[in-house]
Amino acid sequence: MSTAMPGPHEVLTVPEVMKALRLSRFKVYDLIRSRQLRSITIGRSRRVPVDALRTFIENQLSEDD
């Protein structure tokens, strides 16, 4: 099993983002609603591009500085 990070054009499900950030479903959707975390909708499914998750994390780290 590979533990490499997904490529920049791959997308994550909300549960995968929840696991990556160790946040609740409500908080992940709150970040999406507030446009702090970019996402796309495919049919009725919400997906978060890996690069959007990386950008969110980088922005959070730069706010702490």
UniProtKB/TrEMBL annotation:
It comes from the Bacteria. Residues 11-60 form the Helix-turn-helix domain. NCBIfam families: excise. It comes from Streptomyces gossypii. Pfam families: HTH_17. This is Helix-turn-helix domain-containing protein. The lineage of its organism: Bacteria, Bacillati, Actinomycetota, Actinomycetes, Kitasatosporales.
